[in-house]
Each structure stands twice: as C-alpha cells, then as structure tokens.
Amino acid sequence: MDVIGSIPVGPTGKTRLRNTAGGFFRIQDCLRGGAAVSGCKADPEGTHTRFKASGGKTKRVRLTHRVPEHVKDMSTLPTNFPKTAAAFLLATVLSAAALAGCTGEPAPTTVTVPGSPETPSAGSEPELALRAELDSYAAQAGADFSVAIYEHGTGRAWSYHPEGRYLEASLVKVPILLTLLRQATEEERELTAEEEQLAELMICQSDNAATDELYAMLGGAEELQKTYGLLGVTGTEAGEVWGANETNAEDQLRIATAVALGVDWIRDGLQDYAAVLLENVVPEQAWGISAGILNPVAEVGLKNGWLQDDLLAWNVGSSGFVVGGSAEYSIVVLTAGTDSLDEGISLLEGAAAIVNGWELGAYG
Length: 364
What we know:
Blueprint: E1 2-4, E2 7-9, E3 17-18, E4 24-25, H1 27-33, E5 49-54, E6 57-62, H2 81-99, E7 111-112, E8 120-121, H3 128-141, E9 144-151, E10 157-160, E11 166-167, H4 173-186, H5 193-204, H6 208-218, H7 220-231, E12 246-247, H8 249-261, H9 268-279, E13 299-308, E14 314-324, E15 327-338, H10 341-359
Antiparallel strand pairs: 1-2, 3-4, 5-6, 7-8, 9-10, 9-15, 11-12, 13-14, 14-15
Helix pairs in contact: 2-3, 2-10, 3-10, 4-5, 4-6, 4-7, 5-6, 6-7
C-alpha cells in the first residue's frame, strides 16, 4: 500500500478520494489524522477537506456533503475488534479439520452481465479448500447461509450456496440510496439538506421512518426497480413495502460492488458520498462482514439487515466491501432460519470470518 503523508492509498477500488494511480484516500484517516496531514480536518459546519494526489503534489479538495453527526469526532468511536476476533477464532476452530488434505485450487472465472461491468456475476464456486471450510462450518452450524465475493483487483467472483433465498430486510436501504443518487445525477443537481439527512439516518442508523419517507419521495417500487435493472439485479423485485421481498447473494453482491467501485449513472461526488455512509454506520451496527478482520488499518463499508419471516425465524444479512492491505473485495453473507437475532449474527459472522481470513491472507 502506497502512502502519501499519513493517508494510505490502495491500489484499486474507491476508498473515497481518487488519486492519479487509481487509489483513493480514506475519510477516516483524514478525520483522525488531523494535524498529521496539513489542512485535513473536520470543520464546525460538518464539511471536511481531503487531499488529492496530482503530479506528485497534493491539493485541497472540499466536499459539499456533511459528515454524519456521529462521525465528526472519530476518536470517540469504539472498535469492534474483540467481537470480530472472537468470531474469527470460532470459525477457525469449527473449520480447522476441513483444511487437511484439501489442496486443489481451480482458478475461478468471472461472468459479467453485458453492459454492466461494474456489477459482476458470481457464477463460480470458491476454491476447494475454502469450500471445504464453509461446508464443515455449515454442517456444524446446522443453519442456512450463502456467501458471494468479488475481488476488485483480480476480477474473480464466486458464490457459496447461490440458490439460497432470503428476506432483503434493511439491505434494501442501499439500493434505495443508489436510487436517490441516480435521480440527483439525472437531474444534474446536488442533494438537498433534507435528502442528506434522510439518507444518513437510513444508512448510518438504519432508521425505518427515514427510509419510509425517502422511499415515498423517490417514487417507491417503480423507481427502485429501475435501479435494480441498471445494476443487473434479476432475482430481487422491489415491493410497495420495502424489505419484505426476497433476494439472493449474487444480487446483493452487484449492489455492494456498485457502491464500492462506482457506476456510470451516478457521478463521482455522489458515488463517494454513498461509500462514506457505508463506512460510517453507528458502532452498534458495525457487526457482520467485518468479522475476522484483525488488521487495524483495514477499511470496511457495510449495511446489515435483519427481519423475521412468517414462521418467526430470523433472516440476517450483511453486505459491503473490505479494503485491507493488498486485498480489496465486495462481500455478502446472508443467513436464515435461526431462532434469535443473536444466533443469526453469530452464524453470519462465523462465515464472514472464514472468508475474510482467506481473502486477507490469514492462512498464509
């Protein structure tokens, strides 16, 4: 990872501010770095400045969007490393036996929907050794889950149990956000103060009342379905009541990757805004695909969803992106059938910890 000042710059993907090498600075480093990075600070009005590499030099870039209220002082946020470390260790114990003798590693292929290169299809299976770990974990957990991954650098995409169907729940709040940003781009305008407030409440705090209001303002199911079409989402249909519909891991991977890498129908400034919101969910909702990530400089953007079905079993999902060291990828884990929300979170984090361990090189 290259470093300009104290701000890490990843080799690929959008980590919030583009430089000439194709990497992006992280808003967290700017807000935390303060004095370490000249001029990089959060001001009293809530806007912030960052630096963009240009010809070996840097220059100030001012954003028009407000920093969400709960992240203005990043130094006060607790970490969730103890919880994710525990999930990682649990997944390691449960799946250790599956590693023995599993050495085959076929190269995954990527299937891309024509006209939608930003939203890959996870048509391949994971490497044999990783699949064995997930199989072992699924057998011992005795519950239903699906996983999908897209590696930004290699272009590889794969899925585990892709046929699984799950309630979309609050995961739908991300494509609702993309619908807002699509409309603003089409109308060649900035977001209004009201739209920003509703978007931040919807994503950072998973506020349902804000989602109800924003969904109605945007045009409801008809407009959300247009966004699904642009993303190449085919197994998820927008409903008049948001979140009560079913979805699958591949569709959610397309959505997460659209936020991480951008799409041509949302302009860059708004695209970065979406990713910043996912990177700054409130601490009590930062569980999920963050499990097993022990690298303190790794960056995670995520949105979680949880909802009971008609039989009162829990559907719990988490989707987003991870940037850590040389690995950058979109990841989705969906679960169903647990008796409690806590059990669903534990199941999800165990699977996420296994996958993150492989993607981030925990197994060497």
